[in-house]
């Protein structure tokens, strides 16, 4: 798990904008629930597991390091 959930979400939001995708599309493609994205955005989820970061990284074609740098 990683600290800095806000920074991670900001990077996720940037990738959404860059790819013109919605959280619904990403949820559907990765199996990560829309609820988790919503809670992450609102700050209720502060940490994301490495498994979910890996799914997001694979989905967007970036490395996990992109999120944690």
Question: What is the secondary structure topology, with strand pairs?
Answer:
Elements: H1 5-19, H2 23-30, H3 34-42, H4 50-60, H5 64-68
Short synopsis of the structure:
By secondary structure, the chain is an all-alpha fold. It contains five helices and no strands.
Helix share, percent: 55-70%
Low-confidence stretches: none
Alpha-beta content class: mainly alpha
Radius of gyration: 11 Å
Explain this structure.
The two termini are 14 Å apart. This protein is mainly alpha-helical and 69 residues long. It has five helices and no strands.
Features:
mainly alpha, 5 helices, 69 residues, single chain, globular
């Amino acid at each position: 798990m990683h600290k800095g959930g806000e920074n991670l979400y900001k990077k996720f939001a940037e990738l959404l904008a860059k790819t013109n995708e919605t959280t619904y599309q990403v949820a559907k493609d990765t199996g990560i629930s829309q609820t988790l994205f919503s809670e992450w955005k609102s700050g209720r989820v502060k940490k994301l597991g490495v498994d979910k970061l890996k799914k997001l990284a694979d989905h967007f074609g970036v490395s996990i390091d992109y999120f944690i740098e």
